[in-house]
Amino acid sequence: MTTESNPLTGDSPAGADSSRPAPPPGCPAHGRGPGGLSRLHESADLKELYEELRAEHGPVAPVLIHDDVPLWVVLGHAESQQLLRSPAHFCKDSRIWSALGDGLVKPDHPLMPHIAWQPMCAHAEGDEHRRLRGAIDVAVAATDFRGLRRHVNRSVQRVVNRFCEAGEAELVGQYAEHLPMAVMCHVLGMPDEYNDRIVEAARDMLRGTETAIASNAYIMDALQRLTARSRAEPLDDFTGHLTRHPAGLTDEEIAQHLRVVLIAAYEATANLLANVLRQVLIDPRFRSQLNGGQMTVPQAVEQLLWDEPPFSTIFAYYAKQETELGGQRIRKGDGLLFAPAPANVDPRVRPDPTADMMGNRSHLAFGGGTHECPGQDIGRVIAEVGVDALLMRLPDVELSVPESELRFTESIASRHLVELPVNFIPRPQQDVLQRPSHENDAPPRQDWHIGVSRPVAAPVPRVEAPAPMPMPVPPPPPATRPEPRGAWQRLLRWWRGY
Ligand code: HEM
């Protein structure tokens, strides 16, 4: 394989100029590498780069990652579906990746934690995947979702109690990163392990800091103790279902799967929650649509799963045989990046990327096919109740810095809001067993305006855009929430669990 030929196929890829010399190091010329291919990891704006790649190569584009390792990035929505749903052609077993076999990927490659094959369901295929995944599916299916909603609500009250008297908070670090960890510790069966230390350890691991190994050891220690407890006396929790499952998972398999579940759930759900809260806080139209009943909280969550999928890409799929995808010739052993972020804005499914998707769930934020996320409904419940209950508790919450000061960190894998500083009228702590409510202390805001609704995406029924009008000022909230009148409202409260 020469550096001037297409690093993926050895041929000239469609649109790539193989005669183009690599730009000198440090050249701002667009982060291009051998063969004129774009270096994903050097991009300052991946959204923009994906659109350039789509224009240059179509729905499947050749790119480079760290150490100039070649890879295809799948940008099309239909092509992503094809990638995820063709187990005869593509799998997640990195041991067949030719770049690894050829020694192009070194053991110290920065993406090695994602690349290295591990005996767990995220990398397994066929019967082995069915065995491991079957146990996880049973554990998820045993979730009492109404009880979960109630528990998430209580966790919201607990977390908000920690800052509600201050009148200000930073909602990424103090809220969005805490709620999923509090809930997942409960779901897995180790509620006592939830504290600041475990949130800090998870953060640390994901940032890959110098103490990441120690943080991983801290989390693994908690999960191994949980596995041992559950083996001795399995309860009716997630871990109990894994332990008892007829697939006969070993202690090591249980602990490693608990780790994947805890960390994936923590990272993705915290990211989703932060993104929805940010949108509510920066976009008065979004907030007024929510307040005015034109959009439900689940629809708001779904909208953000389209616009900002918590995992921008998933590393990676590998071709089991020579095939074709999106007009590109894929060779056996090629690596392909599944990329929900660009696939969700494929102009063929979203001609207008600003359109309201109206709760449409055909985005790719949870993947698809055999590896589709088994915990998506748990993630949705945490995000939905996490937004709904926070806004009930702090209805006057608003951003305390200009939107332009909000910063993101971005890697190939994900894009994270760094901080979301807010203020609100200070409130006393609340009994966590109470339904979320707020004191009659926040004057209703007069300055929200309903603008023109987001246009509606083509495949989804269009909603008439209301003419701009001032937001109707709601009557001042009562000091305590009245008992709901009517069978429907009582049913709704029962269903929500709060
Ligand atoms: C908003 C929250 C979440 C998002 C956006 C998300 C997204 C994803 C994605 C994109 C995948 C990979 C699909 C692929 O490889 O093609 C995945 C896999 C997985 N997720 Fe989630 N996830 C979330 C929450 C959760 C939760 C709460 C759990 C816990 C039950 C969970 C457990 C898993 C597991 C075990 C896998 C591996 C499945 C397999 O390979 O068969 N996730 N998730």
Automatic annotation (TrEMBL):
Residues 467-481 have a biased composition (Pro residues). PROSITE patterns: CYTOCHROME_P450. Residues 1-39, 462-485 are annotated as: Disordered. Signal peptide: none annotated. Gene3D superfamilies: Cytochrome P450. Coiled coil: none annotated. Belongs to the cytochrome P450 family. This is Cytochrome P450. It comes from Streptomyces edwardsiae. The lineage of its organism: Bacteria, Bacillati, Actinomycetota, Actinomycetes, Kitasatosporales.
